[in-house]
Amino acid sequence: MSNFRFIFLLLFISCSTSKVITDYDAKEDFSKFKTFDFYEDNGENLNELDVNRISDIIFNKLIETGFLQNSAPDFFIFFDTNTAEAQNNNSIGIGVGSGGRNGGIGISGGIPIGGKKLNEELIIKFIEAKTNDLFWEGSLNSVIKEKRTPEQKELHLKEVVQKILKEFPPKG
After folding, report:
1. Structural domain contains residue 92
2. What is the pLDDT along the chain (172 residues), one digit of tens a residue?
3. Which pTM value belongs to this model?
4. What is the DSSP string of 43-104?
5. Which of 80, 87, 138, 140 is the most exposed place for a label (fewest CB within 10 A)?
């Protein structure tokens, strides 16, 4: 019975975690990229505070990895999000019914629990400065609460950006 619980827990965790999706030019020599800068039009679907949060997180992660920011960079960084309302499967059901011998009337409904949730996909793209060609892209889809504190937003964005950039540069 103990093994069954472990397997169930493992399946539950593996189904609920989001995976980073990356795509890149397999012919690209990633060792030539040493410097970066950001496009000015990042985060079209984000507010200015979130653009600044994500820029700071990406900046710190790339500096930590050995890259340098430069006004004449080897590559530019573009990022944005796609957001859609998430399906909320957590609800309390309420039902009223009347069933006589030959017929019935029923009314039911659900009240969502936990507030509105959103599916948010953060996309980060690296574009070669000289050619303006996309050479690496990473994204992660996650479910977030619509109403969050600034601290919760920062923590979530830091986790997401770090997961995405863990895949850069590609290994192998």
Report:
1. no
2. 555 444 443 333 334 467 999 999 999 999 999 999 999 999 999 999 999 999 999 999 999 999 999 999 999 999 999 988 876 555 555 555 555 566 656 565 555 555 678 899 999 999 999 999 999 999 999 998 888 899 999 999 999 999 999 999 998 6
3. 0.75
4. -TTS-HHHHHHHHHHHHHHHHHHT-EE-SS-SEEEEEEEEEEEPP---EEEEEEEEE-SS-E
5. 87
